[in-house]
Design a protein that fits this description.
Distance between the termini: 47 Å
Radius of gyration: 31 Å
Shape: rod-shaped
CATH class of the largest domain: Alpha Beta
Number of helices: 13
CATH architecture of the largest domain: 3-Layer(aba) Sandwich
Strand content: 15-25%
Number of strands: 11
Number of domains: 2
Order of helices and strands: HHHEEHEHHEHEEEHEHHHEHEEH
């Protein structure tokens, strides 16, 4: 039911006058008359007796008047509560999805810092491959995502927020450690790859495609899921892999893994914020996006 019609009706009953009701509501008298006539038409009954010098409610009008007043009071209370919430502390839950590279270090630190600023807010992080995160955001199962590759999708928008590097890693005693190697040398090694849908894999495939090479020409025996899986396999000595630098920075610093470079390859990728196109953001999501932008500026 249109509360504007109820407000016009109640004002007329309280003032017993269309002109005084219009003055109270700050509208014209014809506008008040139109709202009341529309309400009577919708309900199929006459609510006001206009035959005398003063406007009087009919029996049906009196019954409606008390209920309408309660409804208008509830509307005012609801608007006050919403206004108070929008101005007060952030509360509720913020659910974000992230691909494995950003989820290794950057995203958890951002979320922890953000939650410290908003202690009444519950923050939940889901970790998937890039394609799954994009699909969850597109299907509105997650409000926000942070991924390492911007995959084309009409239902989402991407906003770059950070930059990351894709590197080749091996054990410190591997012949590749600290070297720049050629593509033929990699062909002779066991190259471990991530699953389809992983952002790092997409970056590597794009780089190799520019050279006329398909990734699966180099790696056919070990496809091991996401970054943590391939990292563990390299640490155990089963081969080499391309991976996000942020995912292994602590390992490189500790000397448990070493970096190598593929000749002519300088693969960087943008870490992007993913949002569903046209979706109205919650206050928590809006605040988090502003927070991330400030950190990346």
């Amino acid at each position: 039911m249109d509360t504007r019609q109820l407000a016009a009706f109640c004002a007329v009953v309280e003032r017993r006058s269309f002109s005084q009701a219009a003055e109270r509501l700050g509208v014209t008298q014809p506008a008040v008359s139109l709202q009341v006539r529309s309400l009577e038409k919708r309900l199929g009954m006459q609510l006001l007796d206009r035959s005398g010098r003063r406007v009087e409610p009919t029996e049906a009008g009196l019954r409606l008047f008390s209920s309408a007043q309660r409804l208008l009071q509830l509307e005012e209370q609801m608007l006050d509560e919403l206004s108070s919430e929008s101005a007060g502390a952030l509360a509720g839950e913020l659910s974000i999805g992230a691909s494995t590279g950003p989820a290794a270090v950057a995203v958890p630190l951002l979320l922890c810092e953000f939650q410290q600023h908003h202690p009444d807010l519950r923050v939940a992080l889901e970790v998937h491959d890039t394609q799954t995160v994009v699909d969850l955001v597109a299907n509105r199962e997650l409000e926000l995502g942070i991924v390492g590759a911007a995959r084309r999708h009409r239902a989402v928008s991407f906003e770059p927020i950070l930059e990351d590097e894709v590197i080749l890693i091996c054990l410190p005693d591997h012949p590749f450690a600290g070297r720049t190697v050629g593509i033929d040398e990699i062909r002779a090694e066991t190259l471990i790859v991530m699953q389809e849908g992983a952002g790092v894999r997409q970056v590597v495939e794009d780089e190799l495609r520019e050279r006329g090479i398909r990734l699966l020409e180099l790696a056919t025996s070990l496809e091991l899921g996401l970054q943590e899986s391939v990292r563990s396999a390299v640490q155990a000595g089963y081969g080499i892999t391309f991976i996000s630098r942020t995912a292994v920075e602590s390992d490189l610093a500790a000397g448990t893994l070493a970096e190598a470079r593929l000749e002519g390859m300088n693969a960087t990728r943008e870490i992007s914020l993913v949002r569903a196109s046209g979706r109205v953001s919650t206050r928590a999501a809006t605040e988090f996006v502003a927070f991330v932008r400030a950190r990346s500026a």
